[in-house]
Amino acid sequence: MLLSERLEFLMEAHNGLSARIVREAGFGGIWASGLSMAAQFGVRDNNEASWTQIVDLLEFMVDASDLPILLDGDTGYGNFNNMRRLVRKLEQRGVAGVCIEDKQFPKTNSFLNGERQPLADVAEFAGKIMAGKDTQRDGDFCIVARVEALIAGWGMPEALRRAEAYRLAGADAILIHSKLAKADEIVTFAREWAGRAPLVIVPTRYYSTPTAVFREAGISMVIWANHMLRAAIAAMQSVAREVQLSQTLVNVEDRIVSVQEVFRLQDAEEYSEAERLYLAQADAARAAVVLAAGRGRGLEAVTTDRPKLMLPIGGRPLLGWLIESFKKEGVNDITVVGGYRAAAIDPSGIKLTLNERYAETGELASLACALNDMQSDTVVCYGDLLFRSYVLRDLLECEADFAVVVDSSAPGAINSTVRDFAFCSRSDDRDFFGSGALLQRVASLADDAAGTSARTSGPPTPQGRWIGMLHVRRQALARLKSVMAVLRARPDFDSLDVPALLNALVADGATVQVVYVHGHWRSVNDLEELRHAVDFAHGQNLLGAATDEDGGPRR
Ligand code: SPV
Ligand code: MG
């Protein structure tokens, strides 16, 4: 930019956010103003912030803007040696260059008693420039020498003498500063200078001078030195006063940016994309879909005003137990598909989705309501389940694309009211390391209607019962969705339940892993089960001291 044929512009920025805003406005480079950076810290432009604090701040600006940044490096924060270390650190952080001024450390802002400020010894300052140039490793790193002779009242010849000495010491450009309200000094200097090196100016005081004058004078670069800071101060003062006086936000909302705009400037969207790429396998991206749209049978007496999910079990709704069980295992994104008396469902901690047609439809129609939002590893489960925490943990630890929990206990309990018999490739040998069994078929109600269930078709006997929990890995969601799409095309889709989906998955060639448990869960289908559920859920003692056979399932 210093060497370009055109007049170039740097806009001031003082933190990552303002640097991002400057880039979005279309500027090609940034002036990291000492005044502004000090001010945003709430300190003075007197080297009150340490140089390392400035370098740390610059790192945020580099990251946020990806623009070349010229640091206002004051006096170089010390002698030639401090300058050497500064240049090294700036290169390491990706800063494009540094401007140093020929004053003494600690400096003060040029517009505060500028004429009283002692200037640096010319030879000493030239040595500092040389030290910086000798230190830089990137040939493009720039050192701009700022001449304060006009500010300090030493006159034009001294300004020119100093500029020439700094040029000879290796400065890539000269910043000639003036505090006059007109550009006369600058124009005179530029004429005398006659293009010996690029000239940089800071027209804060002579702001009304048309930019064409700078072009005609042969200036290379203009720095708008503090205008982001001053704009922010004006806006903040006005909003702070207004809110303090009115004790309401209503008057300011329309004149400030939305929170969405803050997110956009922070590039929150990129984070979400990266999360989908890198975090979906991690605990943070575990989800659950709880199917709770139907009223169910057997509990009519207590579900006149609420769905089963909201029945109090041991003093809190069943939903509360479910949420706690999920959260304990890092399943934080919980969607409940409601229908019957959905208004009674407490929406805190969950996403509530409605199956409007709950009265005429079955479980798969409810699952379909949540399908589009499924993006990460997801547990699908019935809304009337209580289970010990290991049941969910073991299911989540299973690495298969699809996994189901099958209870291998008490085959004698199978009777005419029981559904969801699971036929598996191996029975539960209660091997400590798991059985590696695969699901072959679940006898669903639909199958019953077709007369093909275990009860009517005789052997083979089921290896247990599916308890109503399915885990789908993220990478298998596409398959789940395509199998669901095929089922949706069936005329009887509205009557299908989750076992029909499991069978369709198996028929499609999917491997559905079986995670065997032996009791330790409850479903709530009648008043008797509700009473048992209270016992089951209530005492953490009971939970902790559970026997092997504890928790007789009934579905
Ligand atoms: C700054 O922006 O900190 C400068 C320019 O040094 S000026 O304030 O004009 O001196
Ligand atoms: Mg400064």
Folded structure, characterized:
By secondary structure, the chain is an alpha/beta fold. Helices cover about 35% and strands about 20% of the residues. It has 20 helices and 21 strands. Strands 9, 12, 13, 14, 16, 17, 18, 19 and 20 form a nine-stranded mixed sheet that branches. Helix 4 packs parallel to helix 5. The longest helix has 20 residues, at about 225-245. The radius of gyration is 36 Å and the shape is elongated. Residues about 450-455 and about 540-555 have low confidence and may be disordered. Sulfopyruvate binds near residues 34, 35, 72, 110 and 226.
Offer a few descriptive terms.
binds magnesium ion, alpha/beta, 9-stranded mixed β-sheet, 555 residues, 18% strand, binds sulfopyruvate
